[in-house]
Amino acid sequence: MFVCTGNTCRSPFAERLAALLDPSTRYTSTGTHLLADLGIDPAMAACLTRLGASTAGFTSTQLDADRAAGADLLVCLTRSHRDFVVGTWPEAAARTVVLRPYAELAAAGTVAAWDPPGAGVEVLSRGYLDDIADPYRLGRDEAERAAAEIETALRTVLGLG
How far apart are CA 95 and CA 109, in angstroms? Predict the structure, then answer.
């Protein structure tokens, strides 16, 4: 389960692109502070369409206890999203990661794709460099930047280069 703020830009992009790259796995997404039941932000939807992923039928959802408990792995787009998840549901801490550092662990062979890191695995933080900044209402260039960062991290996790 991918987690961002409003579940309209980064996390639905990650969900839909991951499903395109790895159709054998079920992906979902949610937001920590949902605005309303919305579709994917138009600029991010354009990025998905360009890559060949579907935007059809998407509606944003709010992260809640049931969703957090039901996810095998909660993949947050920023450190603050992870802090929110772990602060709200401490029992999810071992299953909650930040996408970029997690991709580095996968690239190093420390974790298999979409497995929780496990005890004793050190995840070093590079501070704000771990975060994929929110492109919400910032236009096409910011959407393209966020999309490229997410795509790179997903391809790394999945071993696709």
Answer: 18
